[in-house]
Design a protein that fits this description.
Strand 4, helix 4 and strand 5 form a beta-alpha-beta unit. The chain folds into two domains: about 100 residues, Response regulator (Rossmann fold), CATH 3.40.50.2300; about 210 residues, Hypothetical protein af1432 (Orthogonal Bundle), CATH 1.10.3210. By secondary structure, the chain is of the alpha/beta class. The protein is built from 15 helices and five strands.
Length: about 350
């Protein structure tokens, strides 16, 4: 099987220079040519070259300005650009604009081929390294997700809850995060970390955690400690995902008006991740049957979210939950099919 040739885009306003460059480059590469920056940009819409040979001095937009445009576009910024110019004084401008090399005219064909070969090899190595880093990062993140799923399930067994509860909290939180304009990576971390919110209940004695009646004051103090315990279980981590999980564990029982626990934080001092999970967790806990209570009707639970707007809950998060309520209930109704693909 023949080795696939790289594609080189040559940009020069002198037709004779283009002809010369095309003639000796075609022995090794596919060659695309443009007489000015405007034509080069048109060519880049159709062909994604592996390297660009770019004249500096051209009418209209010069080569340095074109290079700046190329490097500002995520689709083309990784393409290596080699400048070609009769003026040595343009070298600094070209390198600052993002060029990888600078060749002065008159060009030596052998030197051009050598430089092109070198920078194509470097670009290939850079792409491979980036791919390997992304693959290893993905493997690490997948491992973190798996750890979080297993710890979440451990908390469920302890608390006599089902996996559907933690999945629903994660799904509701994800939709609210998107609605509030969080970045997709933050939304992803929120979705995967939210099911960890009650991991601290592992540290609560069964006779308190599973008590069918109302807790006495001493028992309630112990029960409230699960938020701090959860934060301690996750601990400090360099992983953004685990840090989000730690914050959610510790702060999801803080209240907008400062009457929550464990620290009595209020307003925006409470992390947005925790403010979102707080609403989702309370709603789903209300509509779920527990050893100490019957399940509430969904509309009654929604009324409580409205009542606690600006009291227990961030007004913006409560409003988002109310606005998205029909969609969230649709997710709740399809939880069995979603569980197989989302978490």
């Amino acid at each position: 099987m023949a080795e696939e040739k790289y594609t080189i885009l040559v940009v020069d306003d002198a037709p004779e220079n283009l002809d010369t460059m095309k003639r000796f480059l075609r022995s090794k590469y596919h060659v695309s040519a443009a007489l000015n920056s405007r034509m080069a940009l048109k060519a880049l819409e159709k062909v994604r070259p592996d390297l660009i040979l770019l004249d500096v001095m051209m009418p209209g937009m010069d080569g340095v300005e074109l290079c700046q445009l190329i490097k500002s576009d995520p689709m083309t910024r990784d393409i290596p650009v080699i400048f070609i110019s009769a003026s040595i004084g343009d070298e600094e401008r070209g390198i600052k604009a993002g060029g990888v090399d600078y060749i002065t005219k008159p060009v030596n064909p052998a030197m051009i081929l050598l430089r092109v070969d070198t920078h194509l090899a470097l670009a290939h190595q850079k792409r491979e390294l980036k791919r390997e880093v992304e693959e290893k990062t993905r493997e690490l993140v997948d491992t973190q997700y798996e750890i979080i799923r297993k710890l979440s399930r451990a908390a469920e067994y302890k608390d006599n809850e089902t996996g559907d509860h933690v999945l629903r909290v994660g799904l509701y939180a994800r939709e609210i995060g998107r609605y509030l304009g969080m970045g997709e990576k933050d939304v992803d971390n929120l979705f995967h970390a939210a099911p960890m919110h009650d991991i601290g209940k592992i540290g609560i004695p069964d006779h308190i955690l599973l008590k069918p009646g109302k807790l006495d004051p001493d028992e309630w103090v112990i029960m409230k400690s699960h938020a701090a315990i959860g934060g301690d279980i996750i601990g400090d981590s360099a992983s953004p995902l685990l840090e989000v999980a730690r914050i959610i564990c510790r702060e999801h029982h803080e209240k907008w008006n400062g009457t929550g626990y464990p620290e009595g934080k209020q307003g925006r001092d409470i992390s947005l991740y925790a403010r979102i999970v707080a609403v989702c967790d309370v709603f789903d806990a209300l509509v779920s049957e527990r050893p100490y209570k019957k399940a509430w009707p969904e509309e009654k639970a929604l009324d409580l979210i409205k009542e606690e707007r600006g009291v227990s809950f961030d007004p913006a998060v409560a409003d988002a939950f109310v606005t998205l309520f029909p969609q969230l209930m649709e997710l709740k109704g399809n939880i069995s099919s979603i569980a197989d693909t989302s978490y």
